Amino acid sequence: MLKTQVSDGWAGPEPRSPMTLALDVVESLYGLAARDRAERDLFALERELAEALAGRDAARQLLPALFGPLGLAGDWERFFSVDNCLLDRVLARRRGIPVTLGVLILHLCERFAIRAEGIGFPGHFLVRIWAGDEPSVIDPFTGKPLGRREMEQLLRGARGNLARLRSEHLQPAGAMDILTRLLNVTKAAFINGRQFSEALACSQLLLKLRPDCPVARRDRGFLFEQLDCHRLAAEDFEFFIQHCPEDPVADVLKAQIAALDLGPQTLH
Prior knowledge:
This is Protein SirB1 N-terminal domain-containing protein. Belongs to the UPF0162 family. InterPro entries: SirB1_N, TPR-like_helical_dom_sf. Residues 45-184 form the Protein SirB1 N-terminal domain. The protein has 268 residues and is of the alpha+beta class. It has two domains: 8-170, no CATH class; 212-268, no CATH class. The chain has eleven helices and six strands. The strands form two sheets. A four-stranded antiparallel beta sheet has the order 3-4-5-6, with helices on one face. α8 (196-209) runs antiparallel to α9 and α10 (230-243) runs antiparallel to α11. The relative contact order is 0.10.
């Protein structure tokens, strides 16, 4: 059964770690039992990693241990699967995509007193880790450090061949920025699998973070439309049109509203 309740701590004054927020998402969608399973798997991984790092330089050996004997890996074959987006499933499989593996790496770095931060890089979440005085930018999908050339290739893949790497692309990402990215990726994976009710739940969570975001309202409207909740879809489309009247999509949405059946409906 899907839920859309979130912890009050999302909007509270105390900062929450990306891992805590990611587990909040799991609990919000699938309940406390799913979160409990994830926390047990996380504890098991922490214990295995502690054994692997015993007597070794944790900052230099954490990633080789994770992506070696402990079996962490990017999932090339099922990249857009929901299994790669929800932390309970990522922990169970030890497979994921850059943002979920990045969240896990950030948590483990904190657990083993290694300085690290997330980077909201376009199209490919990255992690910066300090092993000594100089940091390295890590691709959490492979566990490997990236040089400027590799980062430029990633950037061009996301932004086109004319894109050039700038310092703004490598700024640290806050926990709520990481959560927003995770929710957007998870929503897209549900849509890709035509799981529109689950995608709608992600949209509801995103709107708890930014309740007046016109784009988030527009996207939720599309999901309401897929679920035959036409009146709710029209309300979200009208909100977008009101706040973004010059956007080319506004005219498309006006035509879409006119075509909707706006009789009484029930959200299932």
